[in-house]
Amino acid sequence: MPAYIGAIDQGTTSTRFIVFDRSGQVVASSQKEHEQIYPQPGWVEHNPEEIWQNTREVIADALATNGLRANELAAIGITNQRETTVVWDRRTGKPVMNALVWQDTRVAEYVRELAKSEGQDRFRNKTGLPLTTYFSGLKLRWILENVKGARDLAASGDAIFGNIDAFLIWRLTGGPKGGAHLTDVTNASRTQLMNLDSLSWDPEILKTFGIPPAMLPQIRSSSEVYGLAQEAPLQGVAIAGILGDQQAALVGQTCFEPGEAKNTYGTGCFLLMNTGTRKIASNSGLLTTVGYKLGDQPAHYALEGSIAITGALVQWARDNLGLIEKSSDIEPLARTVNDNGGVYFVPAFSGLYAPYWKDSARGVIAGLTRYANKGHIARAILEATAFQTRDIVEAMEKDAGIRLDVLRADGGMVGNDLLMQFQADILGRPVVRPVSKDATTALGAAYAAGLAVGYFKDLRDLRANWVGDRTWQPKMTNEQRDVLYGLWKRAVSKSFDWVS
């Protein structure tokens, strides 16, 4: 058996290729950012061709820099930004337009139209998802209705659809020369087109959305051999794992038992709790989604709380305000003050996701006085992430009937000690990050691929790899916690219905 396992981690802001050893340690890594395209307010796009080229470059760079060869990889997995929608011509591989990113809100009118008769939860019983701008299905409809020639291409069978995972797999396995058009259950569950019970595309929803079934990829498990890479430097390597990024982090954090949960602090925040083979319908504004499906085993479901803007708020403060020069400057700036000075920042830039689902909300800064300075703003930016996470935890405990004893944290923001301590304080329970804190998503995809080809024997192998790095214990009094959280809830209410 080859010594290593690899993973493509295609995220919202960058693409990485990471090689792991059998203990889950990083052996090689390369990363490259791609352009964020904002054609108008609320619209967010990526160039799929740029993402594909970056993917090829980071794979080549990670292997070459560390002197690795393709035959040293047992397989690779793919994890990806979910809901980001690509339509391309199967004859040429050329996208019909830029990818519509998960944050994009241009389908808001479709949401209002479809919710008129039966409300926002019209498809929740089948899909676990409310009607909102977030998911892929309505983005696909928008492309078909607004890109010249797209519907004709779809009718002829030449235009095909996928989230980024499907686009990359198709390219890796040959593209126009017989590329495999497929996805896994976790990505399919984020389209609002898949039935959670049958794990297949739902004919009624496809008809309602006006989507030709022939456009859609085949739905497969999250861990099986899908095909072999067809070009150097990965030629001949099996592609054997696919997981949407947040489900990949659930697997990477080895949350395999019902009630175990993780929160990934990235561009947005995504808190998932494993609910086992039982899907739990949410009454508290959460999503019911597929957590993973390993080979022929039954699918495991999860409750998810999705927050659109967390790390992206730090980037906004850097790029749009010039408040800091680099993202890591936010913590020292926030430490120049002892508290938030009464300032609260609700980052509803593209509406509010869970548990509110208010597409009409917009960002607000509340509680400003002459006393407030840029340190208070910086602190409010970090605290917004922790407050939004508490919103999700409360909803999740209510739905699942399970109290969360500890929160496993990963992602780019968990290196921020101030944020992690405040998170423990405002939750009133410990927060723990693993040693693989910034590679957990890629690790989950690598685990799925490794299980498929026998590189890992079973889940016990994966659990043995999980090692805690640091734990933050809550230090805040209950009275302090209640006052701060009460003011946060008041600030959130001020963001509602800003857009009519």
Describe the structure.
- The protein has helices at 48-65, 108-118, 124-127, 136-146, 150-155, 164-172, 185-188, 203-209, 245-252, 311-319, 330-334, 374-400, 417-427, 440-453, 459-465, 478-495; strands spanning 4-10, 14-20, 26-33, 45-46, 73-80, 85-89, 99-100, 159-163, 182-184, 194-195, 200-201, 218-220, 223-228, 238-244, 261-265, 269-276, 287-292, 300-307, 344-346, 364-366, 407-410, 431-434, 468-472.
- The model has no long low-confidence stretch (mean pLDDT 94).
- Helix 13 links the parallel strand 21 (407-410) and strand 22.
- It has 500 residues and is α+β, with helices and mostly antiparallel strands.
- Helix 9 (245-252) packs across helix 14, helix 10 (311-319) runs antiparallel to helix 12 (374-400) and helix 12 (374-400) packs across helix 13 (417-427).
- The strands form 7 sheets. Strands 17-18-16-15-21-22-23 form a 7-stranded mixed sheet. A 6-stranded mixed sheet has the order 3-2-1-5-14-13, sandwiched between helices. A two-stranded antiparallel sheet has the order 4-7.
Number of helices: 16
Question: What is the topology, as strand order, of the major beta sheet?
Answer: 17-18-16-15-21-22-23
The N- to C-terminal Cα distance equals 59 Å
DSSP helix fraction: 25-40%
Largest sheet descriptor: 7 strands, mixed
Return the average pLDDT rounded to an integer: 94
Low-confidence runs (pLDDT<50, min 5 residues)? none
Q: What is the number of beta strands?
A: 23
Strand-pairing-aware structural class: alpha+beta
Global outline: globular
Which percent range describes the beta-strand content?
Answer: 15-25%
CA radius of gyration: 22 Å
